Amino acid sequence: MDWLEVITHTTTAGSEPVSDLMISFGAAGTQVEDRADVPDPSKPHGYWEIIDPDMIEKMPKDVLVHAWYQPDAFSGESLAALRQRLETLRGSLGAAAGSLEVETVNVRDEDWSEVWKQFYKPFRAGRTLVVKPVWEAYTPEPGDRVIEMDPGMAFGNGTHETTGLCLALLEDAVKEGDRVIDVGTGSGILAIGAARLGARRVLAIDIDPDAVRVARENVARNGLTDRIDCVKGDLLQKRDETCEVCVANIIADVIIAFAQPLTQHIVPGGLFVCSGILKEREQDVLAALAAANYTVLRVERRGEWVAMLSRRSA
């Protein structure tokens, strides 16, 4: 069976709502192609590409959201309706929507799930963590902690700025023997990173069963099933685990809502790493953390995104 690939031109800020909209039309999956997601070797903070930096220049200037549909379930009328909904979205996003130009491409069945892999290469996050796709070769340097990843359709291949920010902050937050909770684990990359940094137990939890399946596969691939539990569910519903470090790479509204309830799962004096925060929501999240009696220790920013490391009151 062939697939119809629909590509929408947008911006970094518009990529998430555009992706959500395309999924609502029945996409089998989406992939965001954003040069801002590829670590720039010229930038500091110990976050650099291991591959040829020319790859960034070869990527399109626009942010492209790719979505794949079964042709018999996505007609010309569906495409027209999608274009109409995108114009409605433009009304709420304004300039952040970008051009919202739409292209279509026919893709062979055996190719559609592989097209994004050309942009996913080994890279370093922080000082010692290296994220390596399973299909790429990499020779570790002394002290490297390698995370083997095949994210599938789950969020979290590591190249997105929020994931990289969280990995870098975890490197300073996690101590040998800590317990860690990864809220909204996605592909499991942050849970695996925490275990590589010395966490003795990690709870990787997500409400999406597909994400939990992918996370379990990645945890097994890294030989960490004895330390990481991948669970489908809501941490705030009938869960009583506590941790020294909690990480949540989700969205600002969820972080704001979770900040206070999460204190029941973080030991007094424990740390909370959060990201998925667009820069225009930074002050909202800071206010929510302060109201929940966290002390913000660090704020890191890359592109449009912000991550925070805070400490729960003792």
Task: Report what the structure shows.
The chain has 314 residues and is of the alpha/beta class. α5 links the parallel β8 and β9. 28% of the residues lie in helices and 29% in strands. The protein is globular and about 55 Å long. About 5% of the residues have low confidence. The strands form three sheets. The chain has a seven-stranded mixed sheet with strand order 10-9-8-11-12-14-13, with helices on both faces. It has a four-stranded antiparallel sheet with strand order 2-3-1-4, covered by helices on one side. α1 runs antiparallel to α3, α4 packs parallel to α5 and α7 packs parallel to α8.
The biggest sheet amounts to: 7 strands, mixed
Q: Calculate the terminal CA-CA distance, rounded to whole Å.
A: 58 Å
How many structural domains in the coordinates?
Answer: 2
How do the SSEs run, as a string of H and E? Answer: EHEHEHEEEEHEHEHEEHEHEE
State the name of the first-level CATH class of the largest domain. Answer: Alpha Beta
Low-confidence stretches: 43-53, 153-158
- Sheet with most strands: strand arrangement: 10-9-8-11-12-14-13
Strand content: 25-35%
Shape: globular
